Amino acid sequence: MKKLILLGLMALLSISLAFAQRTRGKAEVFVQVAERGHFKVYLDDELISSATGRFRFYDVYNTRPILTILAGSEKVFSREINVIPNKRLVFNFSRRSGLTLLKELNIYINNVYALDDFDEYVDAVVSPNRPGQPQYSNDFDALVVRVKQEAFDDQKLKVITAYSNYAALSTKQIGQLLPLFFKDESKLLLAKQEFQYVVDPHQFYLLKDSFTFMSTKDEFMKFLEAQKTEQVRNRPMSANDFAAFYKRFKSEAFDDNKTELAKVALINIKLTSEQVKELIACYSFEDKGLDFAKWAFRITFDKENYYTLADKFKFQSNKQALLDFISKQK
Fold this sequence. Notes:
It contains 11 helices and 10 strands.
């Protein structure tokens, strides 16, 4: 009998330890696939599908999940990884090099969520031992030098295509390449070509000012408005991204232009109620601000706080119109 009790206690202890190992503090696992193509990534049973090359898993509790990567229907990688509670692990994957750990970041610093959209700390947070840039950044610098050496736009485009076939570019990097072209139509061709593969499509609107002629800028914005990405953001826009967007948004001279920019720039991204408040304050006319507030409701992260936006309107009719609108939403 004593043996049975002892065995039972040992079994319970083993189960408790296993449970504790898998539930102590959540982590985040981000994966960047440095190849073109349509990939799917599983972390245990959770699936993310994307053509942009970046995959984000939040609220990971299992410290030893199985990471599986599919290229189309072909399984190209599958193995158990070690996850560290309260850390974001950023991995890079290619079929040639396999899976490599790029960065290990603290999710919270001084009890504040400290991270941006992918692999950096937000500027407002000072972190000791901040990780450096990814080791492959020198590859892009070499690409820029090589593109500068080409005398004609079509050759520049071929060089960039040869590089980006195997490595995803960011909006910032494309912004560095566009001024190397002589013609606006060549710049537009590059932008359209790379959009479906860019790692941060929600930032792509910032390239508008890279074009010389208004007609090209308009064509670029119309192109963006027509695009849909498979990347879904489950967290609000980071402070850095919002600051850049706010500056661009406020610079638009007319209210209608502000709204048009928002509809193009805020692709598959969320705002907080406080961020929407700041944008409403940029409108010259309250009715235009009200229209924007109604449109922005669907992309707001904390809808339970949306009623506070009513305080941004001076006229009682607009306050009531917004509250009536919110009450009818589900």
